[in-house]
Amino acid sequence: MRRVVGVFLILITFSFAQTVKVQEMEFAVAIQDREPIGISDKFPPDIGKVYCWTKIYTEKVPTKIYHVWYYEGKEMARVELGITYSVFRTWSSKKILPRWTGKWTVVVEDENGNEIGRKSFEITEHWK
Question: What DSSP character marks residue 100?
Answer without folding.
Answer: -
